[in-house]
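Translesion error-prone DNA polymerase V subunit UmuC (Thalassolituus marinus), 423 aa
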Amino acid sequence: MRPVFALVDCNNFYASCEKLFRPDLRHAPVVVLSNNDGCVVARSKEAKALGIKMGVPVHKIQEQIQQHGVQVFSSNYALYGDISNRVMQTLEALAPAVEVYSIDEAFLDLTGVANAVDLTEFGLQVRATIQQHIGMTVCVGIAPSKTLAKLANHAAKQYPATRGVVDLTDPIRQKKLLSLMPVSEVWGVGRKLSERLNAMGITTALDLASQNPKDIRQKFSVVLERTVRELNGESCLALEDIIPTKQQILCSRSFGQRVTRYADMHEAISSYVARAAEKLRHEQQQCQLISVYIRTGLFNPNDPRYSNSASLRLDYPTDDTRVLLNAAGRLLQAIWKDGYRYAKAGITLSDFYDRGVVQPDLFTQQVISPNSARLMQVVDRINQQQRGKVFFASQGTGKAWAMNRNHLSPGYTTSWTQLRVVQ
């Protein structure tokens, strides 16, 4: 059977999540800001229509915000993650196989059902079901390869007449759309690569699809050769049933205000370690290398600059937050210097091992708590039910270093105290 893929993508995901529990904002321009309320990272279609650009500092659009009543929100990652999980669970009930590609995108494998259903009608059903169950609007692109499905999804968003669904299984429709799409819109073709292709006269997706794959491989790479084949309807990228294990976990933040006290920095580092260790356990991994870094601001000429980092290889792989907190504290002591105004810090966990792969020696076994795994499981289970209910003493309150989130929306789906009340 010929492969058939569908790419389902939520429209303006972050902004749509903010509108979900605010029907009064259904037609209002909405922007979502980055950490510390710095720059615009998401826009509703109404905000895009006002000309607000992605990445623009919020202080530069204050006049537009006031003039057009733009609603501003801080990033609410707990809300976005929960809505994403609900969308993906709904898709898993609608398709034989699902690959979660990002927080707001998923590929569906329709190979086994493509001949039994009308694909456009299936896409419309997906849209209607997610709209009814969750309240989110999605677009669906369907094609014989994942790269073509990406382009089909882009067209579904761009052209209202498609009703949010584009089926590119017909070769004639493929060529017609490819001729309309700039080569820069092709999945995997970045800005620099696009400039090189344009210099060769390859300006549209159809131009790229018309190239000899072997010539493209010699001039560029095997990756671009695969893209050319995918644009011609040859499936080279299968659905990933298993998400690859991460090679490292990084947790870092810019502070809401400058940190000058060691105790406050220690609280921040401890909180980052606790969060990273939770992710590590979720990945069913243990790490043996931990790194800590701190730095001052980059743009204030009146502040002296300082940055430093340090790493420590542990005696044995672990996912125990207590062990990692101890190691991070020792590293912070080694690189900390008084007299500076620190703007950012972070930690990295790396050198991963599957649980049980590395067997500790006789001496190491004496220092590993036999109840470590059970304790961490209990902590994670409680915190999954209510975030931050159980924490380690070194994490402190976080008031001195927390991010600026002055426009944060409630945790509508993740906090019992912030649930909507219907009278």
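The domain at 9-143 is CATH 3.40.1170.60 (MutS, DNA mismatch repair protein, domain I). The chain has a mean pLDDT of 88. ok done for today
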